[in-house]
Write a structure and sequence with these properties.
This protein has about 350 residues and is of the alpha/beta class. The protein contains 16 helices and 8 strands. Strands 1-2-3-4-5-6-7-8 form an 8-stranded parallel barrel, surrounded by 7 helices. The protein is elongated and about 75 Å long. The model has no long low-confidence stretch (mean pLDDT about 95).
């Protein structure tokens, strides 16, 4: 059994070390209490599983000087381009080690097998949360349907729906890839705004979707949102980034080719472009239409979210123009029921993916 003990000893050590790397990233780099707690709890679970193993035999069987693997390394092992690479490598090491512990542990402590398996699944969730935070820029490039949501639109304009969270959940069920909390209710307090943002953060974490906060990098930073969206007269992008966690993205609203160019020069990660059609959701100026989208798409390589008056009936025009992403508000928030929200989101998403 000495060989099995050596394998288990090495992989318990690998898993513990990987969890420490993940926990430190969540704690010190992202300042994210949920991710930090997940990693810490997994470390505690790992320690309890280890306690059910013949730990003394593991230590006695250890042979670091005679381990042929200490001299072997891959060309990429010493290369890390940023936090995302560090976190990804740690999470992969963790899940691989847990799989090895699960298989060889059956020979030593079979009663722990199911517990190790559950821990491995929890590790996949940790990887999704941690790496998802750091890789949101790449993830946003794949967004097709971007929902803009607000209490004002739901409660003041609609009066048929009773919950912002339930509205968002229905939209996600229909295929929404990202949610932007765009709260323009005149009398909303900061603590109410924060509570709403925290609820949406929990939902997007649970479903693997992106959360963007409109106008408020401070709220985005507190809830660990994936980014912030800024209007033409909001804070400069560089100043907003100082408040956000590593990996968070910043978008800028634009209404002309000149503004789109300026957003690129300013360092935006994506732009909103519109209004495409007639809309009374906000005062965005005159309609620019799909023709401007065509011009900007030809020149700007950033992800572009077409916005303004987009619905099931006209989204095809955006697709025909080459649009890859649409931001939708009233077409979803003014639906008569949660089922209607889901149905509308599905119908828009089908058209957005029809050209793939």
């Amino acid at each position: 059994m000495k060989e099995v003990y050596r394998i288990l000893d090495a992989n318990f050590n690998r898993a513990r070390e990987a969890l420490r790397v993940a926990e430190d990233c969540g704690r010190f780099a992202l300042n994210d209490p949920a991710i930090t707690a997940m990693a810490k709890n997994l470390r505690s679970d790992l320690q309890e599983i280890l306690a059910a193993m013949p730990v003394a035999e593991f230590v006695v069987s250890r042979d670091t000087p005679g381990d042929i693997g200490t001299e072997l390394t891959s060309p990429t092992e010493a290369k890390r381009q940023g936090l995302a690479d560090v976190a990804t490598a740690a999470c992969k090491r963790l899940t691989e080690s847990l799989r090895t512990v699960e298989e060889y542990g059956k020979l030593v402590a079979p009663a722990q097998t199911l517990r190790i398996e559950r821990m491995r699944y929890d590790a996949y969730t940790l990887e999704q949360r941690l790496c998802g935070r750091l890789l949101v820029g790449r993830k946003f490039a794949e967004v097709k349907l971007f929902m803009l949501i607000s209490c004002w639109m739901i409660f003041e304009r609609n009066k048929k729906l009773g919950s912002v969270l339930a509205t968002a959940r229905a939209a996600v069920a229909g295929g929404v890839d990202a949610i932007q909390l765009r709260e323009k209710t005149p009398n909303i307090n900061d603590d109410q705004f924060l509570a709403l943002a925290a609820e949406l953060r929990e939902l997007t974490d649970e479903t693997g979707k992106i959360l963007i906060i409109n106008d408020r990098p401070d709220i985005a930073a507190i809830v660990g949102a994936d980014g912030v969206h800024l209007g033409q007269h909001d804070l400069p992008i560089a100043e907003s980034r100082r408040l956000l966690r590593p990996g968070a993205i910043v978008g800028r609203s634009t209404h002309s080719l000149a503004q789109a160019r300026a957003a690129v020069q300013e360092g935006a990660d994506y732009i909103g472009l519109g209004p495409m059609f007639d809309t009374d959701t906000k005062d965005a100026g005159p309609i620019v239409g799909p023709e401007l989208l065509k011009q900007v798409t030809a020149e700007v390589s950033l992800p572009i979210a077409a916005v303004g008056g987009i619905n099931v009936a006209n989204v095809g025009q955006i697709v025909q123009t080459g649009g890859k992403c649409v931001a939708v508000c009233s077409a979803l928030c003014q639906s008569a029921s949660y089922q209607d929200i889901k149905t509308a989101a599905q119908a828009i998403k089908v058209q957005m993916t029809s050209e793939e």
